[in-house]
Amino acid sequence: MEHADNPYSIRPYRRADRQAVRDICAATCWLGEYRPDVIGDDWLWAEYWTRYFTDCRRDYLWVATDRRGRVVGYLTGTPDVSEFNRYLPRLLPGVIARIIRRRLISNPVSRRAIFSFVRSALRGEARLPAAVRRECPAAWHFNLLPEARRRRLGSTMLAMFTDRLRQAGAGGLHAQVISCNAASIASCRRLGMRLVDTSPMTAFAHAIPQPLELHTYVMAV
After folding, report:
1. What pTM did the predictor assign?
2. Fewer CB in 10 Å around end: N or C, the chain?
3. How confident is the model over 98-132, as pLDDT tens digits?
């Protein structure tokens, strides 16, 4: 899909794009910037956020490319986030092997990140309200390199995602956004999404000093 007003295109994901998607996921990990002190380990971060989509849910994955064909962004999605959650335990053997092989617990930066993420998960801080799981189960996230931002690539990919959801008969979608992510919150509001839940989020307390909340927005499709 060509854009007349910029040198970028959007197309369906290909298997050869896998590493580029993972690299962008890590490079834009915190509010669109690279913050290794937040994520602890690039591979673990990308494994969590992209593995299910690149390996199992390619029908809801698009990439943005420049004129040279280089991937500069992506959108992943699923019509039912519970599928993603059921897949996550399959990642554990590889995650544990990575932690041991790279001695991540011996590194204070990665250790703090891992412990914060595990503590947050055990507390169920990102758990969806039952009504959201039932009525708006679809979910997505997208990331763009700085050079490809403010060119409507994200909104175009999101429109493609919601069109696919309508064709599949999906009811609604949700987004969970950290309270300090002003750009994403503004995007949710522009889309007409409705804030339905706010809860404490401590997953990033190891690197972000201010208290954070997780905001859950919903929208019918």
Report:
1. 0.94
2. N
3. 999 999 999 999 999 999 999 999 999 999 999 99
